[in-house]
What does this fold into?
Amino acid sequence: MVMADEPKDTGAADVPPAAPAPDREFRHDPVMIDEVTALVGSVPPGTFVDGTVGGGGHAERILETCPQLRLLGIDRDPLALDASSRRLARFGARVDFFRGRFDRIGEAFADHDIARISGFLFDLGVSSPQLDWAQRGFSYRHDGPLDMRMDTDAVLSAADIVNSSDQRTLASILRRNADERFATRIAAAIIAARPFTSTVALADVVVQAIPAPARRTGGHPAKRTFQALRIAVNDELDMLVPALEAAIDALVPGGRGLVLTYHSGEDRLVKDVFRRRSTVDIPPGFPVPATEPEFAVLRPLARRPQVAEQERNRRAASARLRGIERRAA
It folds into this structure.
């Protein structure tokens, strides 16, 4: 999954439901697949959880190269699950699926009678097929309904947020979710021009709200606004930490957890969780314990895609891969 320079009063009821996409729409280029596979290869036998299975690209490679693993694929997007279930059908009983957000990972474990896992992968952001298919409403380049729901059955859409939020709330969303430095100007422009029903109409207003010199650098001027709205629609940051904690707690000794991030906000959250879980909190004045922390952060701390991959897949350029391992008993 990616969030990059691609290429969330109308209600959700006004947003046309997403129609099924062709399977080819989800057969995208999985980011850092060689690095992910190398880190997963040494984990103990058991269940590996792909918490954002998408079209099944990472999952397919893991199942091909790691015969000791079975896979539980989680995704909230029914179109992604349909595509990945067909892509992974050849692995038969080694694969199970759960539809839902990845912070429902405990429920997924209970449904499939899983107590411990050998590893997990969270590939954050939005997938290339979701970006490329204008009807899903994620794209600021291709016109479509202002939707941005990863779960097509969810109630809240980007149109709801854009058309009903006050200026302070909108500006806060842009700052928190995308570090948008022109958040106040953009929020004011949106309120003055709303209601919005289409992605390109919103993108045009955002572009005009940003000073001309700033439009010439950093990719499409509306990129950060669309990122921020997408994160708000899908509650991506708020669910990340509890999902990570639950997945880390379930790791067996020698098990590894991997996370691919695409912007600074989510990367900070992952880094903080990994740092906290891999250190021992010692009160002042107490002796340092002889035992080591239960978890270790994998090094290098933040892997980057190879130059060749960035050139082949421009949406991978912002990716960071972090990992954590439960130490062997």
